[in-house]
């Protein structure tokens, strides 16, 4: 599924890949409509019917992920509202073991996320994830989402990498397809990003896993190979 011997760099998505997407889905589909309804004197379902199409219209763009954009548009403190349900932030199964094995393998690990820097800080405070990888890059620092074809070129300027020896792991097929078009050698999908929802269907051309324990034996085998072998 992954040719670990050919890799130098592993790019990792955060939400839905390392962290349970339940937090984000719950926030956007339940908590935000509830708070929006309270502020605007609406019935909860009316608020949801108003918000969800508005949010979905921005899907794939940087605005979709931008806390500042939604705070301005909805006249709400989105980061503050996220903190209200921050207890739902958590790792997906086997992620800590996988990250430990990745560190032991000597591969360069980089979180490449569309998460805005403000909620990113909240998630790092809750998880300590920044202490388990070599670097973190938010697409907001580059001014374009991972789905954008020029994202990967701009990422190269910030985190030099060789596409031919890089793996990208993400729960978003549009992101993985973008990475493939940019020449990323290996792409892997996470098919069960939200612990409270059914898994996604397999992609016809991109291999997928449900949980990281599926990768651990081969990754640990790489660790056990003596240097120079």
From TrEMBL:
<dbReference type="Pfam" id="PF00702">
    <property type="entry name" value="Hydrolase"/>
</dbReference>
<dbReference type="InterPro" id="IPR036412">
    <property type="entry name" value="HAD-like_sf"/>
</dbReference>
<protein>
    <submittedName>
        <fullName>GMP/IMP nucleotidase</fullName>
        <ecNumber>3.1.3.5</ecNumber>
    </submittedName>
</protein>
<dbReference type="InterPro" id="IPR023214">
    <property type="entry name" value="HAD_sf"/>
</dbReference>
<dbReference type="GO" id="GO:0008253">
    <property type="term" value="F:5'-nucleotidase activity"/>
</dbReference>
<dbReference type="InterPro" id="IPR050155">
    <property type="entry name" value="HAD-like_hydrolase_sf"/>
</dbReference>
<dbReference type="InterPro" id="IPR006439">
    <property type="entry name" value="HAD-SF_hydro_IA"/>
</dbReference>
<keyword id="KW-0479">Metal-binding</keyword>
<keyword id="KW-0378">Hydrolase</keyword>
